């Protein structure tokens, strides 16, 4: 193959930056935000205090919304205005689940968990919108309940059914108390616009943090790592990161950051599968947000000359399946002579087998999910076929 022909597509995730010693995990972000973390730690301690039961949270949430109080309160202890402290709703939400945020896939999972409330079967009560709707209804019928029996009965029924889920109450408290969510303006559109603005605030804050990390050391290490992944072949680079690795040599033809770059506006989003474009949640999808970032014309990232697709640094989160499946469709990997190479790194030799098994399971799940899209028997044997043909390779870097 001629030297100037692109024969490889490199697809990199956050593991690439971690391999280059870039502190790009969410825990690194929080570790760098001392003042914010002190606030969030204090709030979490109060919310998880055994004396802070759900009844107290319910009373406080309703009191902040404008109802009279008949019990002690939590409000006076953590009356912190997030807007004055540059803390977003998502800073709090992700920190609230920080013990379970091991990688970007976990962050996207929790983003999806909150936004796709109506699709939950295991935790249907986690519904902020429904709870806010009830508060608005409370405010409407309360002055009428003393003069109309039907309103009094509805008020009592609403009160009885008002959420007792601790996490929902905590998030309602934060919205109403710390972020000054205007309950008088509440509607489905207002809520999701509010949460979207808060996500933009979080992304900007994370973006500013990452900007401080890209230095000459990162450029040098990223170039060396790309050289290994490319095996001296000419390549195109598709990055799921916000950073820009060094590509000084002529081997890199085109590079693209699918989720935005630090120079622009990085995005965090959810998969658009099963979300209608008419849904207020659709603007949180990666599909919608990438459309808003797209320039008028972009160079062709996927040339027909590609023979090897290399993946490195990915957790293969479901939120990104649409990207991978689109690439597989474009190259028709079932019938064409395309090789998929999944690289992984070992940071602890004692855990090599565990890491290899985890990577194999992630790749197997990805390929299995892709096979389902065939709607035929050949989708079920895709992985076996490619393994037999030596076109599916799991390899330690």
Measure the end-to-end span: 25 Å
Sheet/helix structural class: alpha/beta
Secondary structure tally: strands: 6
Strand content: 5-15%
How are the strands of the largest sheet arranged?
Answer: 3-2-1-4-5-6
Mean pLDDT: 85
Which outline best applies?
elongated
Radius of gyration, taken over Cα atoms and rounded to an integer in Å: 25 Å
The number of helical runs is 16
Helix/strand order, N-terminal first: EHHHHHHHHHHHEEHEHEHHHE
Spans of at least 5 consecutive residues whose pLDDT stays below 50 are 119-125
The residue fraction in helices comes out at 40-55%
Summarize the biggest pleated sheet.
Answer: 6 strands, parallel
Can I get a quick summary?
The chain has 397 residues and is an alpha/beta fold. The protein has 16 helices and 6 strands.
